[in-house]
Amino acid sequence: MAEKTFELEFKILLEQDEDGYFVASVPELPGCHTQGKTLEEARKRIREAISLYLDVHPELQKEKIRAPRSLINFFATEDIRIQYA
User: What CATH number has the domain bearing residue 31?
Assistant: First the structure.
């Protein structure tokens, strides 16, 4: 019998660190993050990290299956400058 699959949605944050690596994190899943030398690698790894996270947190897995849409609604990111003495 084939295992039932679910399509779950997560918002991820992608940043580039000082060494040029791309860091991906999932605000909805505290502690779920990874990095890669390229954006593609970071995206692939964060999918793996999400799957592993859900495997070790079955209660969150069940909750996410019941409500598969992302719980996070990002509005914007901005760079601001301040005068600081």
Answer: 3.30.160.250
DSSP 30: T
**How far is residue 43's CA from residue 51's CA, in Å, rounded to a whole number?**
13
SS3 content of the chain, % helix, strand, coil (to 5): 30, 15, 55
Q: How many domains does the chain have?
A: 1
Return d(Cα 30, Cα 66) in angstroms, integer.
19
Q: Report yes or no on 23 lying in a domain.
A: yes
**What's the chain's average pLDDT?**
93
Q: What is the pLDDT of residues 12-22, one digit of tens each?
A: 999 999 999 99
Q: Cα dist. 23→2, 34, 38, 52, 69 in Å?
A: 34, 6, 9, 17, 23
Range of 24's domain? 13-66
State how far the alpha carbon of 78 is from the alpha carbons of 21, 82, 84, in Å: 21, 13, 18
